[in-house]
């Protein structure tokens, strides 16, 4: 089994950095700069993931995906969330095929639309 305990430990550190000095902590400095600055890092790291993958550079891909995961974890922590919330969502989706999920979603949307049409276009 893959040991993902490190993600929980890093999450814990990210939560603790809320009270840290921005001059001593990169994470704290990002919190202080705010959502826009964190999103900018997420966008930058996403672009770097794409470039590494396009180059077929497996080592850089690992580094860049790690940077991306890290900065999305900072983003989650900024909103009071953590990898525990993401794990819970993965557990909720576990075993549900993406194809079946999309089919069910489209059927629900079509059903809602037919109800609106039956009511004469009023929701
Ligand atoms: N996993 C990481 C981690 N990954 C990447 N980084 C930092 O993310 C920053 C941004 O990466 P870039 O490649 O964009 O580098 P850069 O050009 O220097 O960054 P900018 O000046 O553009 O912000 C770098 O300074 C990296 O060191 C990380 N910084 C911290 N962590 C974890 O977060 C914990 C808390 O960190 P501090 O808050 O700094 O103590 C650490 O103990 C680690 O566990």
UniProtKB/TrEMBL annotation:
Pathway: Amino-acid biosynthesis; L-histidine biosynthesis; L-histidine from 5-phospho-alpha-D-ribose 1-diphosphate: step 2/9. It is found in: Cytoplasm. GO terms for molecular function: phosphoribosyl-ATP diphosphatase activity. Keywords: Amino-acid biosynthesis, ATP-binding, Cytoplasm, Histidine biosynthesis, Hydrolase, Nucleotide-binding. It comes from the Bacteria. Pfam families: PRA-PH. Gene3D superfamilies: MazG-like. SUPFAM superfamilies: all-alpha NTP pyrophosphatases. The keyword Transmembrane does not apply. Its EC number is 3.6.1.31. It catalyses: 1-(5-phospho-beta-D-ribosyl)-ATP + H2O = 1-(5-phospho-beta-D-ribosyl)-5'-AMP + diphosphate + H(+). Belongs to the PRA-PH family. This is Phosphoribosyl-ATP pyrophosphatase. The gene is hisE.
């Amino acid at each position: 089994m893959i040991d993902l305990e490190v993600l929980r430990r890093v999450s814990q550190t990210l939560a603790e950095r809320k009270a840290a000095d921005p001059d001593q902590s990169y994470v704290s400095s990002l919190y202080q700069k705010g959502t826009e600055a964190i999103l900018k890092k997420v966008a930058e790291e996403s672009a770097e993931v794409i470039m590494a993958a396009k180059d077929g550079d497996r080592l850089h891909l690992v580094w860049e995906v790690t940077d991306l995961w890290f900065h999305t974890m900072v983003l989650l922590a900024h909103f009071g969330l953590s990898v525990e919330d993401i794990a819970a969502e993965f557990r909720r989706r576990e075993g549900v095929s993406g194809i079946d999920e999309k089919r069910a979603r489209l059927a629900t949307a079509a059903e809602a639309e037919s109800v609106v049409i039956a009511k004469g276009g009023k929701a």
